[in-house]
Amino acid sequence: MSIEVSALKSDSFGRIALMRGERGLFVRRDLAHVPLWLRLPAWWLARREARGLQAVTGLEAVPQLLGWDGRRLDRSYMDGAAMYQRPPRGDLAYFREARRLLQALHRRGVAHNDLAKEANWLVLADGRPGIIDFQLAVRGDPRSRWMRLLAREDLRHLLKHKRTYCPEALTPVERRVLKRHSWVREAWFATGKPVYRFVTRRLLKWEDNEGQGPKP
C-alpha cells in the first residue's frame, strides 16, 4: 500500500506526487484526473518517459523506472533541489560531472531533449548533478546523425547553464559550441515554440517560465 506524502506538481498532463510505499519514497505521475481531451497526449508523454527511463536503467543520477501501467508512472525518488532553487554558482565540479552524465546518457542512445529547463536539472543532496523528466526523451542509435545532433543540443543547453552560473570556466571550445546554432533550434523557435506558447498559455492557462519556477 502506498500513501501520498506531498504533491509536487499538477497540470493538465497529470499530477505528480511524492509517495511512500514498502520500498520507501518514490515519485508518481498519475493521469487519473487528466481532462478527457488531453488523455491521449498525456498518455503518450508518460509512455515516452517510461521508455526513456527503461533505456537508462542502472545509470546513476537519473530516476529509475519502478512501474508503468498506462495510468500511473512510478519512478525512484532523488533527494535534491532544482537548479534554480540551489544554483551551482562557481561550482565547476558540478558542470564537469553534468557533462559526464550527459555523455553516459547519450551512450545509452537517449537524448533528453528538454534540458533548457533548469527544473529538469537537479543539485542532489551531495552536490552532484541529476536529470529528471524524460517525457520528451528521444531514443535511437547514438551513432546516427539525428541522435548526434540532438546530443549536441543537450550539450548546448548544459553549456548555457554553465554560462549563467560558472561563466569564467567556459573553455574556448565550449564558447564556440554555444555560438553554433543547429537547424533544430532554428526550426523550434520559428515554428514549435510559438505553438507551444499558444497551447500552454492560451488553451491550458499555465506557464512554466522556461522551467525556472514560478514568476514572483
UniProtKB/TrEMBL annotation:
Source domain of life: Bacteria
Cited Gene3D superfamilies: Transferase(Phosphotransferase) domain 1
Matches recorded under InterPro entries: Kinase-like_dom_sf (IPR011009)
Entries under SUPFAM superfamilies matching the protein: Protein kinase-like (PK-like)
Name by which UniProt lists this protein: Phosphotransferase
Provenance organism: Marilutibacter chinensis
